[in-house]
Backbone:
């Protein structure tokens, strides 16, 4: 079950929670651009399989928007 990528909203819920936390602490927001969704899902599967280094770097470099 841990390797299953859910299509029922769990990813959206996680992004909403992360954005709430980031905004509350002045950290910006996370936005997954439409053209990077497949790459995001690949990193997410790898994360579920115990490798979190790729998704952290991906989110920092391609999806994190710092607010000023």
Residues:
């Amino acid at each position: 079950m841990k390797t299953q990528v859910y299509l029922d909203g769990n990813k959206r819920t996680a992004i909403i929670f992360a954005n709430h936390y980031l905004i509350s602490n002045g950290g910006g927001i996370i936005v997954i651009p439409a053209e990077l969704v497949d790459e995001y899902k690949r990193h997410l599967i790898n994360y579920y399989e115990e490798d979190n280094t790729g998704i952290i770097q991906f989110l920092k470099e391609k999806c994190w928007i710092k607010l000023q």
User: Anything to note?
Assistant: The first helix runs from residue 10 to 24. The chain has three helices and two strands. Residues 10-65 form one domain.
